[in-house]
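Entry 12.
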Amino acid sequence: MEDVRRTSNETPLSELIEKLMKAYRLDGKMKELDIIQAWPDMMGIAVANRTKNITIKNKVLYLTMDSSVMRDELSYGKQIIIERINQQAGFQMIEDVWFA
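Predicted 3D structure (tokens):
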């Protein structure tokens, strides 16, 4: 059997996947999914249990809450939510939060 060795012109698979994600503009969508999945860890179980829908569009986080009390309390802490999400993402992903 022939000994197969890497040559200098070969690219690691992870780098190729990253390039494909950027080319098809999927890297931002993947980050959005990561943020949605990390929501309970970032905000706590009580907030996560009251959150019914999370969407991100044009740097705005849209939250649908099933508790008006929780919605009102979170509206006072918008800046904290923005900071936590941007820290988790590693870049400025969110600029505003809207509640429904």
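Annotation: Residues 27-99 form a domain with the GMP Synthetase; Chain A, domain 3 fold (CATH 3.30.300). The two ends are 64 Å apart (CA to CA).
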